[in-house]
Amino acid sequence: MSSHTHKHHHDPEEMKAIVNRLSKAIGHLESVKRMVEDDKDCTEVLIQLAAVRSAINNTGKAILKQHISHCIVHAVQDGDEEAIQELNEAIDKFMKNS
Questions:
Q1: Structural domain contains residue 16
Q2: How does pLDDT run across 42-63, given as a tens digit for each residue?
Q3: Can you tell me the distance from the alpha carbon of 93 to that of 48, in angstroms, rounded to the nearest whole number?
Q4: Which of 11, 27, 40, 58 sits at 20 to 30 Å (Cα–Cα) from 34?
Q5: Closest by CA position to 6, among listed 88, 83, 90, 87
Q6: Is residue 80 situated within a structural domain?
Q7: Domains in the chain, number
Q8: Domain that holds residue 78
């Protein structure tokens, strides 16, 4: 990764919201793990796992939107092709697994 200087554009409130989303997803995943340990019904485990995955995907989308609205705007203004290229690669990776 190259060292971009646009770190300071992240809104602390938005970051907090994303951290909260991740904490919720982690908590949710922990409860799925307990379900498996307690030998709960497979169907129920899969349904909960799907919910966790969906929460993670939504968090990814939120991060993406935030990144586009802050960092990429500045990258375009600065003519920072590299930042745009990196975002494209990140989107490809993210979409592949969703």
A1: no
A2: 999 999 999 999 999 999 999 9
A3: 24
A4: 58
A5: 83
A6: yes
A7: 1
A8: 66-98
Any idea what the Cα angle at residue 34 is, between residues 19 and 20, rounded to 5°? 10
Q: How far is CA 10 from the centre of its chain?
A: 15
In a domain, 91, yes or no: yes
Two structure tokens written together for 23: 């904490």
User: Which ranges of 38-72 would DSSP assign to H, the alpha helix?
Assistant: 42-67
Residue 77 is encoded by which pair of tokens? 């203004």
Whether the full predicted model's pTM is greater than 0.70, yes or no, is yes
pLDDT tens digit sequence for 57-92: 999 999 988 888 888 888 888 888 898 899 889 889
Asked whether residue 48 is domain-assigned, the answer is no
Contacts (Cβ under 8 Å, ≥6 apart) of 2? 82, 86
**Cβ(4)–Cβ(84) below 8 Å:** no
Residue 39 pLDDT grade (very low, low, confident, very high; cuts 50, 70, 90): very high
